[in-house]
Specification:
Strand order of the largest sheet: 1-2-3
Distance between the termini: 88 Å
Protein name: DNA polymerase III subunit gamma/tau
Number of strands: 3
Shape: elongated
Low-confidence stretches: 5-17
Organism: Fulvivirga kasyanovii
Radius of gyration: 27 Å
Strand content: 5-15%
Length: about 180
């Protein structure tokens, strides 16, 4: 039975290209348990810096590539993802981007493509330290106006002359 494997030409292409190495699993499981989360994070950041680089970038460059990624999602027909990428953002520090959300559903949508977004930004900006944080902000509750009286009272608060006009003309907003 012939062996099914990768041809030597394609394996040369794979080995010569820049592929990110896989995680190194220690032979001793206890060594893995003794590592703290911070140590693991530092090791991952060091690997990202080595692979992606560490070039400084401006917020304008970041926004340009952010918008390019959003446009790609829109072109792919992924309108929900495009909508999430239109949220307000700011730089917390030199490499931490914060995106503001008012709706937890949008966070779930972002989580589906977050890794792709961060990898895209790291590649385009040539900086392996880029990270993305989420900030939940409370949206002010808006007063809903259902009846004609509610609408009239709202307008009267903004413009007191409307009440005078109603009285002079003898109008009834509930009619």
């Amino acid at each position: 039975m012939p062996s099914q494997g990768i041809s030597s030409a394609s394996s040369k292409r794979l080995s010569s290209s820049k592929l990110k190495s896989t995680i190194k699993v220690p032979k001793d499981i206890n060594a893995l348990a003794n590592k703290s989360d911070e140590e693991v994070q530092k090791q991952d950041n060091a690997e990202d810096q080595e692979y992606f680089g560490n070039e400084p970038f401006t917020y304008e460059e970041l926004k340009k590539h952010w918008q390019d990624f959003a446009n790609q999602k829109e072109a792919e027909g992924k309108n929900f993802e495009h909508m999430v990428l239109q949220q307000e953002t700011y730089l917390k520090d030199a490499t931490t981007l914060v995106i503001k959300f008012t709706n937890p559903v949008k966070i779930d949508i972002l989580d589906k493509f977050r890794a792709d977004l961060i990898t895209y930004l790291k590649t385009k900006l040539n900086n392996g330290k880029i990270s993305l944080e989420i900030e939940m902000i409370e949206e002010e509750a808006k007063r809903k106006m259902y009846t004609n009286s509610d609408k009239f009272n709202y307008l009267a608060e903004k413009n007191p002359i409307v009440k005078q006009l109603r009285d002079r003309l003898g109008l009834d907003p509930d009619f």
